[in-house]
Design a protein that fits this description.
The protein is built from 15 helices and 16 strands. By secondary structure, it is α+β, with helices and mostly antiparallel strands. It has a six-stranded antiparallel β-sheet with strand order 3-2-1-6-5-4. Strands 12-13-11-14-15-16 form a six-stranded mixed β-sheet, sandwiched between helices.
Length: about 525
């Protein structure tokens, strides 16, 4: 009888579970001391490191934003003429103390092509007074040190825009860019620098944005760029040492977290481990009794349900979904989560392929569709045309009406183009700031010209005001057209490049017109048609 009992599944399961339990208790002690507690300390360090990286990413975003502002000013015809001395009203139009305070600038410096000072404007950090000068002397002598550092930076890398951190008290965020025409043609005619102080007000903005306490200080020692973490009592501090220009000092960016909750959790975890060991001894008999009836069998049913749901959402599982116990709740929750996951996947696909401002397809979707359409056109021999559409003088529109009104204008233009594309059966997408692209399968260049007229006419009918446009008193567009199989336009990139050249020719011809790319015409490589109604 003893032999028969020892061969029973329950006895063998009890013996195995007892051995596993003993091994688990030993392992629990070992793991707690040499694995779990060190892992918790590592996790704590990872948390503070992640928080510091969040602050660092915010700093990088701030630098990128300042660099974008510099590029917006530097790559502009007005600035280009100003540094050449042919725009005397530039400073009166674009500079004021209010502008500096709202944009939190400390200094803007313009240099000519030789690297000499052309114009300076800034707010003296010591007095709070706003000054404009043509040299770092008299009331602008506080700028002299910065100007010398900027001139050294120009000599080191004269052709690239960049963003640096300058040592100082407070440290400074500095962005620079060569000065070009708006279309970036020709050599640079100078350089523009913008300086933003990383003072208490800047730190307050960072703390508001991240929700984390932030510190910033200059250090003389040369530390590694790795994050340095120190623990003092109930506080853990993390520092990142950032290089400053010209690399003679370092900037310590830091944050700190309170460890009180972590230490309490650690102590609680110790008690949990102890009670777990005790409860494991008490419940072993109950587990043997209830394992098969309450856990294993329902779990097998639920597993079969999930496997069926993966292939057939409703197939053969209605009884399981109608159950009133926890298994039924889990089944319904799984069904709900699966539906939600499918919905989220669909939304993510839309977000990744459409422009959020205009709801038009974005460049990514356009490039995918163009690759497919070009391959099909080359295999079937059907014609294929593309259009590149650019809103005329849209930067002047934004400068005059402001970016919010510019967004409204883009939305109206995009909706109008979408309506025309729907009627005429072609695909249109937003592929740049004020740039749109369209692909027209089974359409030759002449037919594309007709559709471009309809597109331009519809936009003209909006009569969206544009008082600063040299072309018309309302918003207009220029269009470049290219057709597949034209020399150099056998690939998607070649096709779009040809359309871009046609668009450039349309702009050169006075804008508000459409041009077809025709490289065989030696003296006039573009065929044009004015789209003014």
């Amino acid at each position: 009888m003893v032999q028969r009992y020892s061969r029973s599944l329950r006895f063998r399961f009890l013996a195995a579970l007892g051995g596993v339990l003993l091994l688990a208790l030993i392992s629990l002690v070992v793991l707690s001391k040499w694995v779990i507690f060190p892992a918790l300390h590592k996790e704590e360090r990872a948390v503070v490191t992640q928080e510091l990286k969040k602050i660092e990413r915010t700093l990088q975003i701030s630098q990128q934003n300042l660099l974008a502002q510099v590029r917006d000013w530097a790559i502009w015809d007005d600035t280009y003429e100003f540094v050449q001395g042919s725009y005397p009203g530039y400073t009166d139009t674009n500079f004021s103390q209010q502008m500096f305070e709202e944009m939190r600038y400390q200094l803007m410096a313009f240099f000519n092509a030789e690297g000499d000072v052309h114009f300076l404007a800034g707010i003296n950090p010591a007095t709070g007074q706003y000054h404009t000068c043509y040299s770092a002397e008299r009331e602008c002598r506080w700028m002299a040190g910065l100007i010398r550092t900027m001139q050294v930076s120009i000599k080191e890398d004269p052709k690239q825009g960049k963003s640096d951190l300058y040592a100082g008290s407070p440290p400074l965020m500095v962005a620079s860019n060569p000065i070009f025409r708006t279309d970036e043609s020709g050599p640079p005619q100078g350089w523009l620098f913008k300086v933003r102080p990383m003072d208490d007000a800047w730190l307050a903005l960072i703390e508001d944005y991240t929700g984390l306490p932030t510190t910033l200080s200059m250090v003389d020692s040369s530390e590694d760029n790795d994050i340095a973490i120190t623990i003092s009592g109930n506080t853990i501090v993390a520092l990142r040492y950032l290089a400053t220009y010209p690399l003679n000092e370092q900037l310590a960016l830091g944050t700190q977290l309170n460890r009180t909750s972590y230490l309490a959790s650690l102590e609680t975890f110790r008690y949990v481990l102890l009670w777990t060991a005790c409860l494991m001894l008490l419940v072993i008999g109950l587990v043997l009794l209830l394992l098969e009836r309450i856990i294993l069998k329902p779990l097998k049913v639920l597993t079969r349900f999930t496997q069926q749901t993966s292939d057939d959402f409703e197939g053969g599982s209605k009884r399981l979904l109608q159950r009133g116990d926890e298994i039924g709740i889990l089944a319904r929750a799984f069904q709900k989560q699966l539906k939600r996951q499918q919905q989220l996947n669909a939304e993510l696909i839309v977000l990744s392929t459409h422009d959020p401002l205009t709801n038009l397809p974005n460049r990514r979707l356009f490039d995918q569709r163009l690759q497919e359409v070009v391959s099909m056109a080359l295999s079937t021999g059907q014609p294929l045309s593309v259009m590149m559409i650019d809103i005329d003088h849209f930067k002047l529109f934004n400068d005059h009406y402001g970016h919010p009104e510019g967004d409204v204008c883009l939305q109206r233009i995009a909706q109008t183009m979408h309506d025309v594309a729907t009627v005429h059966g072609f695909f249109i997408a937003r592929t740049g700031g004020e740039e749109f692209s369209a692909m027209l399968p089974a359409t030759c260049a002449a037919q594309a010209m007709d559709k471009s007229q309809a597109l331009s006419y519809a936009i003209d009918q909006l009569r969206h005001p544009h008082q600063t446009s040299p072309v018309a008193s309302y918003v207009t567009v220029s269009i470049g057209i290219s057709q597949l199989n034209i020399e150099g336009a056998l690939t998607p990139s070649g096709l779009m490049s040809a359309a871009d050249q046609a668009l450039y020719a349309a702009k050169a011809a006075g804008r508000h017109c459409a041009k077809i790319y025709k490289p065989l015409l030696a003296n006039s490589p573009f065929s044009s048609h004015n789209t003014t109604p």
